[in-house]
Amino acid sequence: MFKRLILVLALVALSAVALSFTVVAQDAVQLGPITQRVIDRGELICGANASGLAGFAVVNDAGEWEGFDVDVCRAVAAAVLGDATKVTFRPLEAGERQAAIQSEEIDIMSRNTTWTLSRDATWGSTFAPTTFYDGQGIMVTVASGAATIEELEGATVCVQSGTTTELNLADAFSQRNISYSPQVFADAAATWDAYLQGRCDAFTTDKSGLLAYKSQAPDPSQHLILDITLSKEPLGPLTPQSDPQFADIVAWTVFGLIQAEEYGITSANIDEFLTSEVPEIQRFLGQGENAIGSLFGIANDFMVPVIRQVGNYGEIYDRNLGPDTPFNLPRGVNGLWTNGGLLYAPPFR
Length: 349
Ligand SMILES: N[C@@H](CCC(=O)N[C@@H](CS)C(=O)NCC(=O)O)C(=O)O
What we know:
Layout: H1 2-28, H2 33-41, E1 44-49, E2 58-59, E3 65-66, H3 68-81, E4 87-92, H4 97-102, E5 108-109, H5 117-122, E6 125-127, E7 132-134, E8 136-141, E9 155-160, H6 164-175, E10 180-185, H7 188-196, E11 202-206, H8 207-216, E12 223-225, E13 233-235, E14 238-240, H9 244-263, H10 270-274, H11 279-284, H12 303-309, H13 313-321
Parallel strand pairs: 1-4, 1-5, 9-10, 9-11
Antiparallel strand pairs: 2-3, 6-14, 7-13, 8-11, 8-12
Helix pairs in contact: 3-9, 3-12
Bound molecules: glutathione.
Glutathione binds near residues 112, 160, 188, 191 and 205.
């Protein structure tokens, strides 16, 4: 009898402790200013590529934004608002990016933007995990006869200002003692037009950008992307640094896209996974008693609308850059770590 009383008292004490933890956990989650304003507005404002970058950010014939970078913003809208369509895209030229992040006229930027130390420090931004590992390349006309960077001695190179491209170009040529003259333009369309009009011998940007531009050339077969990579260009979304919680939401949405691919969870089969009894899957999808999204103050099962409406990383990649697109770009370093690539998500626990 006495033992039973002790047991009951112990259980009561334990549940009181558990209850107070629950209360503490709930109290602790206050929405940060960006998450709050996105929810109040019912829409995410996403900085995007201004001139349209095929495969990454273009407005299609139906007037809708589409592309790899666009889908990253759609995924974040689905995570925070449960609706991937609630995004307004704000076109940004390369040189407009710092001001757009600093003034917070955008909530997030997903615009072929390279993560660098100086941007992290001086833009007042927080970079999310890299969504596309890229590198800078060089394109020339087949007519130029050049096949290597060394053959560009004395060449004129078209490049856009406000980019890492402009800085890397100087490094790459001076390091090899190759003389060149840069033709620098503030907007992408002018840079590309100058190259097409023969005002430059070469055009340089991220290799993803080169593929996009080449696909839009009047005759793509007249252009050659040299077999050289000048730099590392880790591209990904970034947010103003005023709201670390929102930055975490963006980071974990990106990780969630990667993790969903690793688990084989797709927009087509997600319902089967919702009833999975595997603890790891239940946690990832915020099912049962597992606190996941609620720890950020958003829907506990935030990854469910993301995967259902936008798909996992592999689906996003294939839809925009994969075998059924004009790019047919192999995954390479943008594969999962389990396939020898660089994509790796930390545990959802
Ligand atoms: N990843 C590089 C380059 C990004 C970049 O802006 N590339 C140009 C290629 S011409 C572009 O997309 N411009 C489009 C625009 O400014 O609208 C960076 O972050 O600086």
